């Protein structure tokens, strides 16, 4: 036997290379490569130039048209469309092409042109096969739907996320998907924006086969030869081809949409429902209506602002690119936050040790993690591996081996500093020490620490699995290498880092406190809790400040408010005596079953549903103190720029995404109008509404 080195062994064990068809190309385009093998099957491979992922720009679509024209003269008996990008097929349309458009007719013209090219693909007389690995979203799925067959690799994820951008599918997806699979399933996919994995896609008929890479070529040949067994069509398609049946289903879809997305803020779901209700079963009519509807939605403020949110997300993600060299995380504190941070890190592939003085608390955290993995991880192997990586550490020995130590104990300065004194001598010389404090300045926590350059704040938000943002908190002695690794760590675990400077409350909690405390003042004045919450919800917040305070925990919120009042010059209202009494009596919110609201056994608040519509002043009283604090944080340099601030507030608090973020809303409304309103509120309600001097530098125009 010939000797082999380690490199040769790994090469033998490496995954099989992606199948791209014949090696020699008939035609090389900028983004596409066309080839044909001896079996007369043509391969059209997309590898968008100078981009890490494939997206459908106008240039890419134009070249697809040219490639299809080239196909006509090569005598191919089948065509395969595939991506050369390792990450996936096509991630959708290039959103940069849609930014700042304002003319509906121009959008319609561009869409009709693009539809013509996708229709050309769909009309080819030969079998066409989309081979899909990794992501296949939006316009990418619409290209795949125009093919006669779809073959998926086991890692494929397919979906239409357009609804999250204030849109619906616009390149034929509305009529092709509802014609291909159960229309109820199709509409649910488009209305929710949820993805389906390969196995589910096969079960619903969205793909015709799920194969491993080594079987792609054989599957392609079977499809081209007409030997691939397909399972398409549904009895529901026939029933829902009738207008009365669609009207009944549309009524249900509309009711569900109204619970999730108010029509005045998010029109796209309702436009999609109407499209299908009025034109389902008539592909040509639905195509024409899709183009018009998509074009009108695209130029709307909602879609343009949600696209801005998409770019805010990309900006935060970009700051997290690169390797962090963090493979082992040690979490101290297995309560709700610490346990969930540990579970999330293990789910994202890191080795995690979890320590706590109370062994029962660790056991409960592992139990919560197992429940989370059962719900969110897609295979028994993934669930098993995640639990294997999450290790209870009853003796706390993991602290000496970890690349990152995260402290998530009770929010008290003396407790955290005592812990630092205990663990600092045990931490590796190149390891990072992070605190999950939500409000305590790091200058206070670092006192006596031998290596302040390796201390950073990593402030996660609750619930960890849903809230994407992590505040990466710097202080004046933090090393740049430490901060860079902390940002990259967030990327490793698929979270969005917002770089902020150390100050009481940092950015998000400081701004949120202004919002919550004004709600407490209103309750103190005798205003109904339900009306206060409705004012915020009508503005577009995911929940009102009263419900949010209960969700956070009144005890936690009270500690933050006390600390901010003590440490800051911000004009924070006095804490009502009844709020202090509630916390003392254990009425701390939803977790206790009673807080500002009383909760049923499912954790739902008991609310009075019939409340009058709140006035504009109530909305301004809630939201403008938050905006005023945002401007103050910008002026003080707590956050570097408006984009980071807007992203942080959207992804940490759910600030009405369709408004594009608090600073974008402020600019859209106009600084002069907000300053004038603040002065009016100052006259009526006190100095806490005094406009911050930072408004002067903001100006009125975006």
From TrEMBL:
Keywords: Fatty acid metabolism, Lipid degradation, Lipid metabolism, Lyase, Multifunctional enzyme, NAD, Oxidoreductase, Plasmid
EC number per UniProt: 4.2.1.17
SUPFAM superfamilies: 6-phosphogluconate dehydrogenase C-terminal domain-like, ClpP/crotonase, NAD(P)-binding Rossmann-fold domains
Pathway recorded for this protein: Lipid metabolism; fatty acid beta-oxidation
Residue span, 3-hydroxyacyl-CoA dehydrogenase NAD binding domain: 328-501
Reactions it catalyzes: a (3S)-3-hydroxyacyl-CoA + NAD(+) = a 3-oxoacyl-CoA + NADH + H(+)
Domain spans labelled 3-hydroxyacyl-CoA dehydrogenase C-terminal: 505-599
Pfam families linked to this entry: 3HCDH (PF00725), 3HCDH_N (PF02737), ECH_1 (PF00378)
GO molecular function: enoyl-CoA hydratase activity; long-chain (3S)-3-hydroxyacyl-CoA dehydrogenase (NAD+) activity; NAD+ binding
Top EC category: lyase
Family statement drawn from the similarity comment of this UniProt entry: Belongs to the 3-hydroxyacyl-CoA dehydrogenase family. In the central section; belongs to the 3-hydroxyacyl-CoA dehydrogenase family.
Stated name of the protein: enoyl-CoA hydratase
Organism name: Sinorhizobium sojae CCBAU 05684
């Amino acid at each position: 036997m010939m000797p082999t080195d380690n490199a040769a062994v790994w090469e033998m064990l490496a995954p099989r290379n992606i199948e791209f068809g014949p090696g020699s190309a008939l035609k090389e385009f900028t983004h596409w490569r066309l080839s044909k093998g001896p079996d007369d099957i043509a391969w059209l491979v997309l590898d968008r130039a100078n981009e890490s992922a494939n997206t459908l720009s106008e240039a890419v679509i134009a070249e697809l048209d040219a490639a299809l024209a080239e196909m006509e003269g090569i005598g191919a008996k089948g065509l395969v469309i595939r991506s050369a990008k390792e990450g996936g097929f096509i991630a959708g349309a290039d959103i940069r092409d849609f930014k700042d458009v304002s003319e509906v007719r121009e959008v319609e013209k561009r869409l009709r042109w693009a539809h013509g090219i996708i229709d050309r693909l769909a009309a080819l007389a030969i079998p066409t096969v989309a081979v899909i690995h990794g992501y296949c979203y939006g316009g990418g799925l619409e290209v795949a739907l125009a093919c006669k067959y779809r073959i998926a690799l086991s890692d494929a994820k397919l979906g239409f996320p357009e609804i999250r951008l204030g849109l619906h599918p616009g390149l034929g997806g509305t009529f092709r998907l509802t014609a291909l699979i159960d229309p109820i399933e199709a509409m649910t996919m488009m209305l929710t924006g949820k993805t389906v994995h390969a196995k589910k896609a096969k079960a619903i008929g969205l793909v015709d086969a799920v194969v491993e890479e080594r079987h792609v070529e054989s599957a392609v040949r079977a499809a081209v030869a007409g030997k691939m067994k397909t399972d398409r069509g549904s009895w529901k398609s026939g029933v829902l081809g009738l207008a009365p049946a669609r009207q009944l289903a549309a009524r249900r879809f509309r009711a569900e949409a109204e619970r999730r997305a108010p029509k005045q803020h998010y029109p796209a779901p309702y436009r999609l429902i109407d499209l299908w209700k009025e034109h389902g079963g008539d592909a040509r009519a639905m195509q024409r209506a899709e183009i018009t509807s998509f074009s009108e939605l695209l130029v709307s403020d909602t879609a343009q602002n949600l696209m801005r949110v998409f770019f805010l997300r990309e900006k935060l993600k970009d700051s997290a690119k690169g390797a962090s060299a963090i493979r082992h995380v040690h979490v101290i504190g297995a309560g709700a936050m610490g346990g969930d941070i540990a579970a999330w890190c293990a789910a994202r592939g890191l080795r995690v040790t979890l320590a706590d003085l109370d062994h029962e608390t660790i056991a409960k955290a592992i139990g919560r993690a197992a429940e989370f993995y059962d719900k969110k991880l897609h295979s028994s192997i993934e669930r098993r591996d995640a639990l294997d990586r999450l290790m209870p550490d009853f003796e706390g020995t993991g602290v000496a081996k970890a690349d990152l130590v995260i402290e998530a104990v009770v929010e008290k300065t003396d407790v955290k500093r005592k812990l630092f004194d205990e663990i600092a001598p045990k931490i590796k010389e190149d390891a990072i020490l992070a605190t999950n404090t939500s409000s305590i300045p790091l200058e206070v926590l670092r006192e006596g620490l031998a290596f302040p350059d390796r201390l950073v704040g990593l402030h996660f938000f609750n619930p960890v699995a849903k809230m994407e943002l992590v505040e990466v908190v710097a202080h004046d002695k933090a090393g740049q290498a430490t901060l860079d690794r902390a940002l990259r760590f967030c990327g490793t675990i698929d979270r969005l880092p917002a770089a902020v400077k150390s100050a009481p409350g940092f950015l998000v909690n400081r701004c949120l406190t202004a919002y919550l405390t004004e709600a407490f003042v209103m309750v103190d004045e005798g205003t109904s809790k339900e009306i206060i919450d409705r004012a915020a919800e009508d503005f577009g917040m995911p929940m009102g400040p009263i419900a949010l305070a209960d969700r956070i925990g009144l005890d936690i919120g009270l500690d933050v408010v006390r600390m901010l009042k003590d440490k800051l010059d911000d004009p924070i209202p006095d804490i009502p005596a009844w709020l202090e009494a509630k916390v003392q009596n254990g009425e701390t919110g939803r977790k206790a079953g009673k807080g500002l609201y009383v909760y049923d056994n499912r954790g739902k608040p008991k609310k009075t549903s019939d409340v009058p519509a709140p006035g504009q002043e109530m909305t301004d009283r809630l939201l403008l103190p938050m905006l005023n604090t945002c401007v103050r944080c910008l002026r003080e340099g707590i956050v570097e720029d408006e984009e980071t601030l807007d992203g942080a507030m959207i992804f940490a608090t759910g600030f009405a995404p369709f408004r594009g973020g608090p600073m974008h809303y402020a600019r859209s409304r106009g600084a002069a109008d907000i300053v004038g309103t603040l002065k009016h509120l100052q006259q009526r309600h006190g100095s806490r509404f005094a406009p911050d001097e930072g408004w002067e530098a903001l100006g009125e125009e975006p």
